[in-house]
Design goal:
Two copies of one chain form a homodimer. Chain A is α+β, with helices and mostly antiparallel strands. Helices cover 56% and strands 7% of the residues of chain A. In chain A, strands 2-1-3-4 form a four-stranded mixed beta sheet, with helices on one face.
Chain lengths: 245, 245
């Protein structure tokens, strides 16, 4: 059995599927894709994932992409050390949160992250080269995002994203007043999603929202997350990347 | 065992969870929520779903919302007549498509549907009454959508939505050139999602996109969908609604 995990930095979606691999103690080959060099749009990588996105999991030749989908797959195949409740109601709660985070949190955290970090990278590329790089991006929305990062996201989009993140923080805070973990009594993929999708370092973009007054339970929950050995290892980059052949 | 299904018209998310109930031949009580009367925001309904959204499934007192989550739950609990592949790779393909449709199709079809159908309803409500109704809506995005429908969606948003739907149509068309059903050899929740989320009557908003030249396979697939007895019954409204007490 071979698992090969193609991923960028230990952030966002890349972190999201790495934590389950480590929680389950699954041996995997790490293949680091350098997003600063736009390797995710290189022809060799597009043969693996035509969408030109990471992470990707290759399990004995079966290619899986999208971290939420990968994580459910890992539960289906490697049922030991479950991160998805075995009772259907618990699984439904977990999926409710995954869906909420995927649709109403990650992308809004991401806009601010791109604004801060990808904007300068995109602006450092000379115009002609930038257009050449854009042509290699398979997904139109992803091209749009790169162009917006280069030009600077407009303030209305940034403000809306902040509102969405504030809404998510308050919703999570209420939930953690009722249950120990996000989807109930057990640590699940929903916690991993929340952590990786932005809770890990939410202060960087939203210092005004992440305060002991507004979300004390979220901050306490995050300490529990950070204390988990698998999470620590994932945040440090996971297993060492294999040499690329 | 009691299943009670709260739903609006046999369209979009309401249709999406009704088809599996009927495919699995599960007895359920139908509770029709009149969206034209804004019943989904009535206090009695908010006690059932604080988000003020339909559909909702009540299974012996356990409340589930969001049609994609409900449908996975039905697979977990009622494993006969499966609509989710039992092999993990097939399930992953199904979830890949569900995620794509939930994030990149449904909402964009929906904007045009709201523009055509909800706009006139929203504009027919007197201003003071409209504000009172808005105050009852729990989700900020949903309030935004009602206000946009009343004012008229802006052309840039409508154009972007059309682009997204065109992209989805072409992606589906390519897939149906490779597999008999959307997620592979078997009929799954992904087909039900595509059908209910918009394929059912895509011509209404996008006559220029739905042509025998552009998407012949999609149209042939849709005929197969429409020929299924459970789909026929669902499109006709499903089981008769119970009297509300």
């Amino acid at each position: 059995m071979t698992l090969r995990y193609y991923h960028g930095p230990a952030l966002a979606n890349g972190l999201k599927s790495m934590i389950p691999l480590l929680e389950k103690d699954l041996p995997y080959e790490s293949v680091y894709i350098d997003l600063h060099k736009f390797e995710q749009h290189d022809p060799w990588f597009l043969k693996i994932n035509p969408e030109g996105q990471v992470p990707v999991l290759d399990h004995d030749g079966v290619i899986l992409n999208h971290s939420t989908v990968i994580n459910e797959y890992l539960e289906d195949v490697f049922a030991d050390r479950p991160l998805r409740p075995r009772n259907p109601v618990g699984a439904a709660h977990m999926r409710y949160w995954n869906k909420f985070l995927d649709e109403h949190f990650l992308n809004y955290v991401s806009i601010h992250g791109w604004h801060r970090m990808i904007g300068p990278i995109a602006r450092a590329v000379e115009s002609h080269e930038f257009e050449r790089l854009m042509e290699r991006i398979p997904l139109p929305d992803q091209r749009r995002k790169w162009r917006a990062a280069r030009a600077g996201f407009n303030q209305a989009d940034l403000d809306y994203a902040t509102e969405k993140v504030a809404f998510a923080i308050d919703k999570v805070e209420r939930q953690l007043g009722e249950t120990a973990w996000l989807a109930g009594a057990d640590y699940t993929l929903a916690d991993i999603n929340l952590f990786a999708s932005g809770a890990i370092n939410l202060e960087l973009s939203f210092p005004q929202l992440v305060t002991r007054e507004r979300c004390p339970r979220l901050l306490a929950w995050r300490e529990k997350m950070r204390a988990r050995p698998a999470v620590k290892l994932a945040v440090a980059g996971g297993r060492a990347a294999a040499a690329r052949t």
